[in-house]
Design brief:
The chain is mostly helical and 295 residues long. The protein contains 15 helices and no strands.
Length: 295
């Protein structure tokens, strides 16, 4: 029994559960923002499951493709494939099974548009980003961020069957959030990336330049997060939350540039960036249901 539990734990680790949790949460918010009242439960439940399975499949493929680099990096060498706990064949079958089940659920219980967009996101992250962009350009995170920014759009289309300006704005928020989020941890792990010849920005352009880019993208992010209020998509509750969160994120970005000798600050910035996105999307959800009751 213990052996089965350990094996199951390794399969779960392949799906990067913490990352996937953040992804499916933004997709869930996209679902609830798509309609004025409560969402219809069938497309919401099965859309959530389908998007989660696709994200888990993409994560498992990422593990498989990056297995050799992971074996050399301190942060990743204990993952299931480099450690030998799972074989490449097991990881591939697991990833393909999750992906196939995801597509089946989305086609049957949501709509074809959601299935197609989800499949494109899966391929965008697992193949286009991981295989090509990650090793081709220091702008890998910027370009590849499109796949990670798609979940709110997927959630929206699962409920409505079409794409509008609002889900594209949610996409834009995550797209702008991705560079400062990843470049903060890349500063901390730059030696690992250099060891395996992955051209992350701190490796190719240096840490001071990367810190400056984190600041610029954080400013862009703060401006973009004001748009839901400006177009009437959200109300004052969201605006207050977005301004407060943006101010804290800017504080971290400024400190990151002004205190280069603080080795703990990149990971603190990275950690806050995760909290930032979770709370920002929570404000979107709260505003969507609470503000109409107030007015």
């Amino acid at each position: 029994m213990r052996g089965l539990w350990v094996k199951w734990r390794d399969f779960v680790a392949l799906t990067k559960p913490r990352v996937v949790l953040l992804i499916v949460f933004t997709a869930l918010v996209g679902m609830f923002l798509a309609v004025p009242g409560m969402v219809p439960w069938v497309p919401a439940v099965f859309g959530f499951i389908g998007i989660w399975l696709a994200a888990a499949s993409a994560a498992a493929l990422n593990h498989l493709i990056d297995r050799r680099a992971d074996a050399e990096m301190t942060r990743t060498r204990r993952r299931p494939l480099p450690s030998g706990n799972l074989t490449e064949g097991q990881a591939l079958l697991f990833a393909l099974a999750l992906g196939a089940l995801s597509m089946l659920i989305l086609v049957v219980f949501t709509n074809v548009l959601t299935a197609v967009l989800t499949f494109c996101s899966l391929i965008g992250y697992a193949i286009i980003y991981t295989v090509f962009l990650k090793r081709a350009t220091p702008q890998n995170i910027v370009i590849g961020g499109a796949a990670g920014a798609a979940p709110p759009v997927l959630g929206w289309t699962a409920i409505t069957g079409h794409i509008g300006a609002e889900p594209l704005l949610l996409f834009l928020i995550i797209f702008a959030w991705t560079p400062p989020h990843f470049w903060a941890v890349a500063i901390h792990r730059r030696e690992d990336y250099a060891k395996v010849n992955i051209p992350m920005l701190p490796v190719t352009h240096g840490v001071p330049f990367t810190r400056l880019q984190v600041f610029f993208y954080t400013v862009l992010l703060v401006l973009v997060t004001l748009l839901p209020y400006l177009i009437g998509m959200s109300g004052p509750i969201y605006l207050a939350g977005a301004v407060l969160l943006g101010a804290v994120f800017l504080y971290y970005a400024i400190r990151l540039g002004m205190t280069p000798h603080d080795s703990r600050l990149p990971m603190k910035t990275f950690g806050f960036s995760i909290v930032y996105l979770l709370v920002l999307f929570t404000f979107l959800l709260v505003d969507h249901y609470v503000w109409p009751l107030i007015v």
